Automatic annotation (TrEMBL):
The active site is at C39. InterPro entries: GATase_2_dom, Ntn_hydrolases_N, PRTase-like, PRTase_dom, PurF, PurF_N. Binds 1 [4Fe-4S] cluster per subunit. Catalyzes the formation of phosphoribosylamine from phosphoribosylpyrophosphate (PRPP) and glutamine. Mg(2+) binds at S319, D381, D382. Pathway: Purine metabolism; IMP biosynthesis via de novo pathway; N(1)-(5-phospho-D-ribosyl)glycinamide from 5-phospho-alpha-D-ribose 1-diphosphate: step 1/2. Its cofactor is [4Fe-4S] cluster; Mg(2+). [4Fe-4S] cluster binds at C272, C418, C474, C477. It catalyses: 5-phospho-beta-D-ribosylamine + L-glutamate + diphosphate = 5-phospho-alpha-D-ribose 1-diphosphate + L-glutamine + H2O. The gene is purF. This is Amidophosphoribosyltransferase. Gene3D superfamilies: 3.40.50.2020, Glutamine Phosphoribosylpyrophosphate, subunit 1, domain 1. It comes from Paenibacillus sophorae.
Amino acid sequence: MSYEIKTGNKQAEPLLWTGDFYNEGTGSGDIFDTLKEECGVFGVFGHPEAASMSYYGLHALQHRGEESAGICVANGRDFNYHRGMGLVKEVFDKDKIQSLVGDMSIGHVRYSTSGDSRLTNAQPLIFKYRDGDLAIATNGNIVNEPLIRRELESSGSIFQTTSDTEVLAHLIARSPKDFVGAAKEALRKLVGGFAFLLMTNDKLLVASDPNGLRPLVMGRVGEAYIFASESCALETIGAELVRDIQPGELLILDKDGLTEDRFAEPQRKALCAMEYIYFARPDSDMNGANLHAARKRMGSRLALEGFVDADIVTGVPDSSISAAIGYAEQTGIPYELGLIKNKYTGRTFIQPSQELREQGVKMKLSAVRRVVEGQRVVMIDDSIVRGTTSRRIVNLLREAGATEVHVRITSPPFKNPCFYGIDTPDRRELIASHQSIEEIRREINADSLSFLSPEGLIQSIGGLSSGDYKGGLCLSCFDNDYPTQVDFGGAEKEGCSC
């Protein structure tokens, strides 16, 4: 379903109504044009309460995908699984969890772009093939998926979803090798950023792309092994963090225990920098760095690179709070809670008027008038995408009485699209790709604007001491230096990631 209104002879921009409720499948057209993560994965091997543990683990990863959720459990004979659209707490209840009996499971939360918000794409994806059942859960994006899909379809494959994850199942099914050999062979054909959990009736395979672009960690609780996109999910179930899954690594878990193997040699290490800047929860650790501490250092470094005299510092919730504290500590300017996020603006069945839609930012964010009124405010945020959100928040602070609003961004200017699992607009829609910093400042109505330098970002995360190229980070969205090939002969992606 779609809907638009017209005012006079001028056609207004389309309203965000694409389904049964107002903001279903809104994707990057949401009131907040922030970047969207694609997915989160969670796996359990060797625990009788695998389904329950996956449920709580997915709750902890809910910020990585709010559109669909699913859990598949293996009991050595067959699969039990359930998937649905919505939040984890909406998809599962006590009865559904109790029906998922087994000691091995994989789970998934997903965000998709508009048009691909459908149950058929909800993961884990389940398949029947010659050796039995196969379930796959993914975080990331396969860049050469259109080319592989086209080749498979030309030789007879019939796809059931628009998810790029399905190509891996077809590649495995076509291989004459055993499951592990077929998985290795298939994974080597993929280009992109991905963290895979693959489960059969008696095996669990865990794989990370050769560049380590998407995060994946391993933990232990008793004798059971746990795998998750972020370490915060391990904490939720009382598991101990063991280590990060390494680039090109393949872990095999079966009746013989854990076998550490690999399907490819590690390439240039390039963990997505936006995980540190924005996506991951502040209580997660990645590559030995705590996210809250790293973001505080970003704020501190930003204060050195872009100091401005002001009365208070405030952060845009939630990802920028840590950086705002760091900025305040470095400058001595008091940190104040100048912006409040409403955490309960989920799906609504009421279609707002165009006027209310323009004011819709206030449904999700409020300025604390008694804090900002009459004050010179430093507003810390993680990124500027199109610029529309930054402008709305700056104006929100001005309407609440701020005399000056100085914007400080804890990342370099975002100029290039991501091909590895983040939903980003076309390069032409990225304001920093065609406007100078001064032009962006005027566009967002700020008194001043400053971005964190790439060197400051790498140093804040702690990457300089690693000796890896660019601190082991992927900075392609800032500098156009992609760690993999991204052009595959004009094969255009029509489906969705994850």
